[in-house]
Amino acid sequence: MKQKNKNGNPVLGWLQMNLGPLLGLLALCIIVSLLSDKFVSKDNFLNILKSVSTNMMLACALTMVIILGLIDISVGSTVGLAGIVCATLIGTGRYPIWMVILFCLGIGLVVGLVNGILIAHIKIPAFIATLATQNIGRGLCQVICNGAPVRCSEEAFTRLGTTTMSGGISITVIYSAFFVVLICILMYRTKIGTYLYAIGGNEMAAEYSGINVKLIKMIPYLIGGFFAAFCGVIWTARLGSGSPTLGQNFELDAIAATALGGASMSGGIGRIGGTMIGVLMIGVINNGLNLINLNSFYQLIVKGLVVAISVIIDVMRKNRAANKV
Question: What positions belong to coiled-coil segments (predicted)?
């Protein structure tokens, strides 16, 4: 799906498609800059980019799920599970780093595969299926490490999450940009993106048109599991340890970002560009609350309100559109 304006300019088309989220981001930046004079600085902007890099990957993958009209609340626990397994294996010193990373990415793919099978083939509601895998993942985290953090301070590994590139850009931002580009190619340069929108808009019609609905439904969950595991590895490298609580509420950040970006929770509507802006909005909110020294618990309240308000607006928009028909 190419985003062009009437004159065929893709940049103007993208701006028009994402004007609402862009204006929201601009308004947030203005508000935070008025509340704190530390906001407008190169170092702070780079810090925001670093802080949102993993959520950018998770939210873009989740956008594909939401376009289908489904949900995935297991990504946070997958982040934690991959992280704790990674820290445990590297901490033993018995296995090459590359082998451990591949194994952890495999864990993410398995979680995604299980979610996909439960939802697409067994037809368990997405919320229930991913709630189950979320709890299993959290339980495994506690079992593997007995509820305690696991250190893995091997320098060759920690550099994967702590290296700073030229210009002060964190390497995690580079990872994020790379994977987001891949998602955009998949969504807007292949038939998979078209199929996702078709299924989210009308699953029965999509199936009658010859689309392999079960297979297409599994793809976003596989990608989400892979991205979540990768984020778990990167967070573990950044922190130098694995924690059984790593990834808690990551799914809330990702859902909030997609909602702010204009995705419809009922499916058929959503844009990667909008989600990217939504991720930046969440980053600005968190950064602003930190700059004015508000307790981190307020961040959860704000993000919960953001999700609720975004869903209410989406429902109102759909009701208004239905009344016009």
Answer: none
| b/e 17-32 (16+ beta carbons within 10 angstroms → b) | bbeebbebbeebbeeb
Q: How confident is the model at residue 2 (pLDDT cuts 50, 70, 90)?
A: very low
As its CATH architecture, domain 41-288+296-308 has Orthogonal Bundle (1.10)
User: What end-to-end distance do the CA atoms of the chain give, in Å?
Assistant: 25
Q: Are 37 and 235 in contact (CB under 8 A)?
A: no
Per-residue model confidence as pLDDT tens digits over 107-165: 999 999 999 999 999 999 999 999 999 999 999 999 999 989 999 888 999 999 999 99
Q: What is the DSSP letter of 95?
A: S
pLDDT in tens, 270-324: 999 999 999 999 999 989 988 988 777 777 787 778 778 777 877 777 677 666 6
* CA-only gyration radius of the chain, Å: 20
Contact at 8 Å (CB) between 35 and 291?
A: yes
Closest among 190, 51, 39, 215 to 117, alpha carbons compared: 215
Q: Give the separation between CA 35 and CA 38, rounded to whole angstroms.
A: 9
At 266, is the pLDDT very low, low, confident or very high (cuts 50, 70, 90)? confident
What is the Cβ-side half-sphere exposure of residue 135, based on CA atoms within 13 angstroms? Answer: 5
Alpha helices in the chain (DSSP H): 10-17, 19-35, 42-67, 75-92, 97-116, 126-145, 155-162, 171-188, 191-201, 203-208, 213-239, 250-260, 272-291, 297-324
Q: How far apart are CA 269 and CA 281, in angstroms?
A: 19
> Predicted confidence band at 8 (pLDDT cuts at 50, 70, 90)?
low
